[in-house]
Amino acid sequence: MSIVELRQYTLSPGARETLIELFEREFVTGQQAAGITVGGRFRDLDDPNRFVWLRSFPDMARRRRSLESFYSGPVWREHREAANATMTDSDDVLLLRGPGFTPAPGAREVLATVCHPSDATAFDEYAARHLSPGHALHRTEHTENDYPRLPVRTGEDVRVWFGAAQPPPWPSRRLRLEPVTS
């Protein structure tokens, strides 16, 4: 299992395609060079001003080193102003533990569920009945964020999975996502 960030950016109206083009051209390879695995990147089908993406790290120590390398490196320094100009909020970030997720080639829509179960044992029973390994189940990573320059949401316990499944009996939000193809 990896440390995974599920990042949801709120963008200025009309800026999503600008960010996606910059992201795909510069930030995917730039992050990979810093030891970051960039997973799925998506347009939120229900919000034209939202970009959703995942990145993963083998562990928290390598997360910190990789983030320090990328955010102090030449790719971010050169393109940060253009990227930041597209965003109104980049702090909706869940720090998770799980397998990461990249959609299958040719996928047109991916469903992601962010669930707030009130009972871990009951959730495990739900997951055993309704989720398969293909759902790429992730759980909140409760380790303190050791790279505070990039905030993450705290004080909540979530489960995130990808793909259709029986709706859970706990509060949840479903995201309909369109994969970005390079």
From TrEMBL:
Pfam family, one: NIPSNAP
Lineage: superkingdom: Bacteria
TM regions (residue ranges): none
Span of domain NIPSNAP: 4-86
InterPro entries named among the record's database cross-references: Dimeric_a/b-barrel, NIPSNAP
Protein's name in the database: NIPSNAP domain-containing protein
Biological source species: Streptomyces cirratus
